[in-house]
Design goal:
The complex is a heterodimer of chains A (118) and B (115). Chain A is mostly beta strands. Chain A is 0% helix and 51% strand. Chain A is built from no helices and twelve strands. Chain A is globular and about 45 Å long. Chain B is an all-beta fold. The chains are: A mainly beta (118), B mainly beta (115). Chains A and B meet through strand 6 of A and strand 4, strand 5 and strand 9 of B.
């Protein structure tokens, strides 16, 4: 069974600064996907960034980037130029590759509550 | 982008009654839908996975007879909480996926309060 661990229950950062959220996972799968989701106070789950395990290049989406270390089973999220709207819960998630296409179930970490201070 | 809706957004019911929550994929065919439960300040817990036209697969510890899931079409799945009790009060979230994308699209969630 896969597990996802987020060791930082809460973090805070000043507006415009950079913050890194940690995530480690455990799996015996060789093909899989990793995700970071944001859940603001509205509780709508929003995909921030995804990484395919077979890709060595770290994924980047505007101010969001990841540091994917496959051997170490680590998948951290870096938020640059933090904005007040980044205040939310952030969940790291694992999904194994589906041979049939489509989506397998997501395994979530416990989340990190990020507060961006003005 | 892919849009998933949930109805109702919030519901209050009396103990012992049944409540149905709908999850719809608005602009794509959802071959698989997932139902999650989230308690305050906690992570999402997967309850069950449903494939269109098949019986749902429930996670360990989830009561099949209490949480009835139906996925009768490629755009609609329903979760019925039968004989609801106060401990069933929670935030229920659905997600949907098609066969082409390795990604789930989430609904906005339903807040259930059982009095």
């Amino acid at each position: 069974a896969q597990t996802v661990t987020q060791s930082q229950p809460e973090m805070s950062v000043q507006e415009a600064e950079t913050v890194t959220l940690s995530c480690t996972y455990d799996t015996s799968e060789s093909n899989y996907y990793l995700f970071w989701y944001k859940q603001p106070p509205s509780r709508q789950m929003i995909l921030v960034i995804r990484q395919e395990a077979y890709k060595q290049q770290n994924a980047t989406e505007n101010r969001f980037s990841v540091n994917f270390q496959k051997a170490a089973k680590s998948f951290s999220l870096k938020i640059s130029d933090s904005q007040l709207g980044d205040t939310a819960m952030y969940f790291c998630a694992f999904m194994k590759y589906s041979n049939q296409g489509g989506s397998e179930k997501l395994v979530f970490g416990k989340g990190t509550k990020l507060t961006v201070n003005p | 982008g892919a849009v998933v809706s949930q109805h109702p957004s919030r519901v209050i019911c009396k103990s012992g009654t049944s409540v149905k929550i709908e999850c719809r994929s608005l602009d794509f065919q959802a071959t698989t839908m997932f139902w999650y439960r989230q308690f305050p300040k906690q992570s999402l817990m997967l309850m069950a996975t449903s494939n269109e036209g098949s019986k749902a697969t429930y996670e360990q510890g989830v009561e099949k007879d209490k949480f009835l899931i139906n996925h009768a079409s490629l755009t609609l799945s329903t979760l019925t909480v039968t004989s609801a009790h106060p401990e069933d009060s929670s935030f229920y979230i659905c997600s949907a996926a098609d066969r082409f994308h390795n990604e789930q699209f989430f609904g906005p969630g339903t807040r259930l309060t059982v009095l």
